[in-house]
Amino acid sequence: MRETNRSARRILITGATGAIGGALAEAYAAPGVELHLHGRNAALLAAVAGRCRALGAAVVTQVGDVRDSRALADWLAELCREGTPDLAILNAGMNTNIGPAGEGEPWPEVEAVLDINVKATLAMVNGLLPGMRRRGAGQIALVSSLAGYFGLPVTPTYCASKAAVKAYGEALRGWLAPEGIRINVVMPGYVSSPMCDAMPGPKPFLWSPQRAARVIRRGLERDRARISFPFPLNLGAWFLAVLPAALSLRIVRLLGYRQTGRP
Fold first, then answer.
1. How does pLDDT run across 91-118, given as a tens digit for each residue?
2. Per residue in 35-44, pLDDT tens?
3. Is the peptide bond before 188 cis (omega within 30 degrees of 0)?
4. How far apart are CA 72 and CA 122, in angstroms?
5. Strands 9-14, 33-39: parallel, antiparallel or unpaired by DSSP?
6. What is the mean pLDDT of the chain?
7. What is the 3 state secondary structure string of 25-68?
8. What is the CATH number of domain 9-254?
């Protein structure tokens, strides 16, 4: 049964069954807030929704795969007919890597990473912007990664996808700010989660999802163009982007971001 409260602040979160997405849902859950949570795992999504309802929020859930472009567009159209969200956090994502022996990224996983991290993110923005522009207000947070600053040898497609999201969000902010629409790029470092655990290489300055959610919410409330954390990892990632590429590659290999054997 759908819960509706037109006076509530409407917040949309995709990837709500992930570590950061679930923590963000609970961080925003409160009386007078209407949460729209999207995820692929029905059981996990129901559990997140239950915790948010216990905190007083009205919750609407949508189970689906963001790679299904038609279903995604239809769902967004229905949602926006009822009232375009005030805040949308586009958090759905996945990763792949070259494997422990450097055998390479499986092509089906490469396609899935690009479809979920990039194509679905752009599709979501495309579905949300018309309502926000008519209203002259709204906020969209695009979840990139510190990996978007410089390509790590062990996760090339993931890094490329997050660099695309970063550039797209920055471009949108410059375009839409005069219309009263706030666009923010979120660039987390390592946040404890199954996806993070599966990534190869060291994971310095590992944060809990709850800590990450608090920093993201504070950054969105302050309308920061980039919400990057943790310090000093974010500073180091930024330096990798501005240093000569040959030197940056040497640094990331010395830090342990390399294959451990040969296929």
1. 999 999 998 888 999 999 999 999 999 9
2. 999 999 999 9
3. no
4. 12
5. parallel
6. 92
7. HHHHCCCCEEEEEEECCHHHHHHHHHHHHHCCCEEEEEECCCCC
8. 3.40.50.720
Beta bridge partners of 13: 37, 89
Within the chain, which residues score under 50 in pLDDT? 1-8, 261, 263
Query: Sheet harboring 9-14: ordered strands across?
Result: 58-63, 33-39, 9-14, 87-90, 138-143, 181-188, 226-229
Positions marked catalytic? 158
pTM confidence score: 0.92
Single-letter amino acid, residue 227 = I
